[in-house]
Each structure stands twice: as structure tokens, then as C-alpha cells.
Amino acid sequence: MSATAKTPILELAGLRKSFGRMEIIRGVDLAVVQGERHAIIGPNGAGKSTLFHLVSGHLRPSAGAIRLRGESIEGLPPQSINRRGLSRSFQVTNIFPRLSVWENVRCATLWSLGHRYSFWRDVERLDDVTRRTEEILTEIDLIDRRRTPAGVLTYGEQRALEIGLTIAGHADVLLLDEPTAGMSHAETERVVALIRKVSEKRTLLMIEHDMQVVFDLADRISVLVYGEIIACDTPARIKANAAVQQAYLGTEAA
Ligand SMILES: Nc1ncnc2c1ncn2[C@@H]1O[C@H](COP(=O)(O)OP(=O)(O)OP(=O)(O)O)[C@@H](O)[C@H]1O
Q: For the chain, how are helix, strand and coil distributed in percent, rounded to 5?
């Protein structure tokens, strides 16, 4: 690979999104560098989820460009963006509660390998799926829970499983939407460790409200306020940025 640490893997340029006459995303430029952990923070209603919907293909931009490894992806359907290596988790859980942990990951793996290896013979393909399912369960530390129905996992374990489903398809750009929302302190610590691990060899873009998690995990932070990025910098500089303090962090950062 010729990519260097400075290569943007995901680029947004002049991105805009309006709903009727309301412009929610108002000209966003962002370059996410290969291998970095990048957090998007901002007040409620700033447009963070809308931005994720645009990047993952769940919404079409009104204007502007989105490039993944230099190729335009704006307007493509979510499945084709996913096949190009960008995978997204949702705030609302995506798991099948009655299926076991194993079956959940196996479904995600089958689905993703199906695109790549549809010409393989079934047996070989199933071996591959089994191997990949084991790999994922080991990576997310749920291998001992593989026979448990996903619906009876703890909340923290369910979020870990969701991360497993997100990485099942070999994506190297992960979008995580509030991965620690609603978690206890202990669950948050566990999921932060997991995010750190799964993002070691991947690029991470995440929306997160918990500032401790953001400052702990992120290499860079973008601050979205009323559909515009008002600052994009290292955690230390974001903390010290007066405009950010005023617009968003305020008392929370104190
Ligand atoms: N499909 C839609 N149609 C109309 N307005 C929408 C639509 N989706 C989002 N909005 C509006 O866009 C604005 C930004 O919403 P969005 O969910 O992107 O913000 P957010 O930063 O993710 O907020 P939160 O932190 O509360 O999740 C809100 O005012 C919301 O009402």
C-alpha cells in the first residue's frame, strides 16, 4: 500500500443537506486521515447524525462531495458504500435478540462474504464464514458467550456485539454512533477498550457525547455547531479553544 499516515481516507468537501427549506448541514469540509480516531462532537441538533447518514449513504447530500479513498461515494446506496469498506453502527441496536451471539455474527459475516465469494463452492464458503465468525467473536471478547441468545446479553455486551457486526465485513473505516450511550461506568470502560482495540488497524469516525470517552480515545476532534465545523484539532487544543468552550463545551469541560 502506498498510503501514508497523512493520506485522507475519507474526505467531505462543501457538504450540504437541507430538509425542505431548513439547511441542516451547511458546508462541511473534513479530511479523516488513514488510521486516525476522529470524534465528532456538538450540541443536540447540530447535525451529527445527519452527517453520518450522508456518509453512510442513508441520505443523499443536497450539494458537495464525499470521497472514500479518493473515489466519490456521495449518493451511492448504503450497501455499495459498505462494500467499499465503510461500515456503520447505529444508535438503535441492529442485533437479532432471539438468535445466539454466534448466529448474529455469522449472519453478518455470511452477508458480507456473500458479495465477495459468491462463486465459491458452499462448503469452502461455510468454512470461511466459520473462521471469520470465530475471529470476530474473539476480537470482541464474546467467544465464551457464543451460545447465548443476543437478547439476554448485558447492554454493554450487546453494544460490543454491535461493534462485531460492524467489523464483520472487513471494513477498514468504521463509523460508530454514540457507542457508549446509556452505559454504566464499567460498561463504558469495557467498550472504550474494545473500540481502542478494533480501531488499531482501522480508521474510526465516531459521534460521542461522553467527553471523557472523546478526550480519551480521539486523535482529533471536530466540533459541529449548527451544521458547520467550527474547529477540528487535537483534544488538547480543542479543550483550550475559546470558541469551542463558548459554543459547546461550556460547563461540561470545566
Ligand atoms: N429527515 C429529517 N427531516 C427534517 N428534519 C430533520 C430530519 N433529520 C434531522 N432533521 C433535523 O436536523 C437537525 C439535526 O438533527 P441530527 O439528528 O442530525 O442532530 P444531532 O447533532 O445528531 O443531534 P443529537 O445529538 O440530539 O443526536 C434537527 O433539527 C432535526 O430535527
A: 40, 25, 35
Ligand 1 pocket, residue 59 CB under 6 Å: no
Distance 40 CA to ligand 1 centre (A): 15
Q: Is residue 134 part of a domain?
A: yes
Q: Smallest Cα–Cα separation from 239: which of 226, 228, 177, 216?
A: 216
**In this structure, what CATH number is given to the domain that contains residue 163?**
3.40.50.300
Give the distance (Å) from ligand 1 centre to CA of residue 47.
Answer: 5
Ligand 1 centroid from CA 198, angstroms: 28
Domain that holds residue 232: 8-19+26-253
Q: Taking the model in full, what pTM does it have?
A: 0.89
Cβ of 56 closer than 6 Å to ligand 1, yes or no, is no
**Has residue 2 been placed in a domain?**
no
ipTM of the complex model: 0.95
- pLDDT per residue over 100-153, tens digit each? 999 999 988 887 776 555 555 565 567 788 999 999 999 999 999 999 999 999
